[in-house]
Every structure is written in structure tokens, then in C-alpha cells.
């Protein structure tokens, strides 16, 4: 076989490999425009993060606006510190609140942002002040039983 | 009494041979790496070998990938529909292919197709005294013959594994969405939500690179040290497939434990 045609075929082979890799990253994986456009980091502290995981989505009004980058435990305040990357094109006011919500009844947990009314916007490295922890099933049940017991006593 | 000492001697010889083989293989590996710089001064040799090793394996890899994808789509549907998680077919197919089946099945097929052809070629060169003739001409046979095939195998393996995974996922898509009727949107979106580019796709590629090193090295070594007879070549090709397959599966276990543990 001529050297030129071999080079061409090998080149095609390598290109095919790259196309397959691109297909896998974009269609099968989650290489979204998000990582390519740019993001800013915001922190929030929660009493209990429940089943929140890294790379879980951050949504506002149901639309994904970012991803959770890191979850750490602060042993000074004994709270969980969640670091999230928000997309550069979405701006939130400084008094935005963060809640941990569950998609569906028993689905994966995500952070929901609710915008406040402040004129100043969240910048890189800011902290979200108002947070609401995840709903823990056991505390709900014990709350329910306690209120039922109190009701019974009142009667 | 003589028979007993003979048996024990033979037993010792078996283990001593094993150790000697491992040592020989290690020195051969070092020699390949050492000669790589010199060999890569002739890149057209590597390109030619990528053509023989990679391009010619493309048909078996693509067809196998397609059928593995089909089967995964079917099996996933049968199993997941019992739990009402039918939508997860995409995620199931994607993760199994990217993390495990892509690299491992490609490596096993590669060992069978490209590995045996490399072993047979080098074994026949040894049997036809071509390697000795090269040494007589002061051309190092390792640099000229072995090293280009080694790097061609290392380059071709990850490309083949990626193509296998991609075609497999397409195969799974065809079976689940077109034939069975799963919702196309949920197929892709659940897969995208669960497959991470760095954690899953790139780790699968890393696995296939390691397998490429292992399979190509085993094939080259068995060819190089084969007995210069037709039976020698035949034994060498069998040993290539067996050793390479076992090495791939053992390495897969080690790599999975290292890479995917929490």
C-alpha cells in the first residue's frame, strides 16, 4: 500500500476516535456549555444537607443555574458549607435564600435559590445568608408523633 | 526415591521458570521503553502499524460494539421494567459501556485479533531468522520491529475502546428508543445527568490505555521469545490470547477498585 493512503486512513482512524470521544462527552456525558462559559462561586451554610451530593444541580424557578462544587464540614460552627458554581450569565441579589429540595418524592436532592429584593448582586466568593436545611424524614416523623401526643394530652 | 526427588526437582523448575519468564519479560519491557526514542525518529513505521493494528480491527470492534449495545438495551429494559425504572436504560447502558464493557471487551477482542497477528508476525520473523539477519546488519530488531508495534497498539487501543463505547450507546439507543419505545428525551437526559466526563468517560479511556500497554506488550513478548518452529508460533499465539485476556481482567479489577471506590 502507498504511504500516502496509509497515512490518510490512519488519520481518518484517529479522527473517528476523536469524534467518538466528543460524542461521548457531549451526548452521553454532562460536558455542558456551563463549564465552557464561566461561573462564579458562592458559599452557603446549612444545618443539615440531607442527601445532597457534589455535582447536584442548583436551580432557581426550576431552571438549572449552576452545580454544587464542594461540600465541607465546618467544625467551628458545626454546619455543612456548600460551595456552588453559578453560571456567569445569571445574577442573584445579595439577599437570595437557598433551600434544599427534593426532585419528586424520593428523587435526588438539589439546592433551590429564591431571589430576594436587594439591589446589590452576589459576587464571586459571597455567602448566601438565609438557608433552609433539608427535610429529614426521621425528624418529621418524631414531630408528627410529638404533636399527636400533645393533642391527645390536651383532649 | 529417585522418582520423588525428580518430581520435586521438576516442581522447583516450574516455579523457577515462571520467575525467569517474569524477569525476561521485565527486561524486554525496559528494552522497548529504552529504544522508543530511537524508534520514534521513524514515525512512518508507527503510522503503518497503527493502520495494520487499528484500522483492520475497526470492523470487529464496531460490529461487536453495536451488538453489545443492543443486548445491553434489551437486558436493561427487562431488568429495569420490573422496578418501574424503565427510563434508566440510557444511564445503565452508558455507565456499563463507558466504565467497564468498552475498555474490557475491546481489549479482549484486540488481544484476539491484533494481538495474535502481532505474535504470529514476529514469531514467523523469528522462525525465518529475519530477526537474526537484522542483528547481523547491525539493525536492532527491537527498535525496527517491536517498538513501532508497541506504540501503535498503545495508541490504537483507546481509540478503539472509545469507538466501541460510542457505537454501543447508539446501539442501546436504537433498541430502547426505536424498538421498545422508551422516551428519547429521558434516555439522553438521564444518561447525561449520571455520566460525568472526567469521572466516567476519561477514566474509561485511561483503563483502555493501560490495557493497550498490557495486551500489546504480551503479544510482542510472546512473539519475540517464541520457539522458531511452526508449533512454537502456534503455542505463542495461544499463549498471547490467554495471558493477555487474564492480564486485562486482573488489571480491570485493580483499576476499578482504585478508580471507582468512594
Structural notes for this entry:
The complex is a heterodimer of chains A (155) and B (262). Chain A contains 3 helices and 8 strands. Chain A is of the alpha/beta class and 155 residues long. Chain A has an 8-stranded mixed β-sheet. Chain A starts with a helix and ends with a helix. Chain A is elongated and about 95 Å long. The model of chain A has no long low-confidence stretch (mean pLDDT 85). Chain B has 262 residues and is mainly α. In chain B, 88% of the residues lie in helices and 0% in strands. Chain B contains 9 helices and no strands. The longest helix of chain B has 40 residues. Chain B is globular. The N and C termini of chain B lie far apart (57 Å).
Please supply descriptive tags for the structure shown above:
heterodimer; A: 155 residues; alpha/beta; eight-stranded mixed β-sheet; 3 helices; 32% helix; B: 262 residues; mainly alpha; 88% helix
Sheet with the most strands of chain B? Answer: none
Strand order of the largest sheet of chain A: 7-1-4-3-2-6-5-8
Any low-confidence stretches of chain B, pLDDT <50, length ≥5? none
**Average pLDDT rating of chain B:** 92
SSE string of chain B, helices as H and strands as E: HHHHHHHHH
Strand content of chain A: 25-35%
DSSP strand count of chain A? 8
Mean pLDDT of chain A comes to 85
Question: Hey, which two chains have the biggest interface?
Answer: A-B, 21 and 30 residues
Number of helices of chain B: 9
Radius of gyration of chain A (CA) equals 23 Å
Structural class based on helices, strands and sheet pairing of chain B: mainly alpha
Basic shape of chain B:
globular
What is the makeup of the main sheet of chain A? 8 strands, mixed
Number of helices of chain A: 3
What's the SSE pattern of chain A? HHEEEEEEEEH
Amount of helix of chain B: over 70%
Distance between the termini of chain B: 57 Å
Q: Per the principal axes of the C-alpha atoms, what is the gross shape of chain A?
A: elongated
Q: Which blocks of ≥5 consecutive residues of chain A have pLDDT under 50?
A: none
